[in-house]
Design goal:
115 residues; 11 strands
Length: 115
């Protein structure tokens, strides 16, 4: 059994910052790919950022230049540093870790950007 848990969400004013963390535990030794997705009410879940085991990163255009994804393989943890947050960033953020061809999802952490 693999457990994936996100943390770090909350309420922040526009222009503020948050750092999300996602740790995987259980029968998982390392993840090939780690990524973040988000889903706003009434909208489809969308890709935010991904990081590969060699450390390569990709970002959605909407967050490029503002968000930074990183990983700690020893801890099976992926992070998302979110800067210059906008109201349109408001969503539930989900972590996905891909291991041996299988995707493992967390339950999500809510981010609200509002004045």
């Amino acid at each position: 059994q693999v457990n994936v848990v996100e943390s770090g969400g909350g309420l922040v004013q526009p222009g503020g910052s948050l750092r999300l963390s996602c740790a995987a535990s259980g029968s998982i030794f390392s993840s090939d790919v780690m990524g973040w997705y988000r889903q706003a009410p009434g909208k489809e879940r969308e890709y935010v950022a991904v990081i590969t085991s060699p450390g390569g990163t990709l970002y959605a255009n909407a967050v490029k230049g503002r968000f930074t994804i990183s990983r700690d393989n020893a801890k099976n943890t992926v992070y998302l540093q979110m800067n210059s947050l906008k109201p349109e960033d408001t969503a539930v953020y989900y972590c996905k870790q891909t291991n041996r061809g299988t995707d493992y999802w967390g339950q999500g952490t809510q981010v609200i950007v509002s004045s």
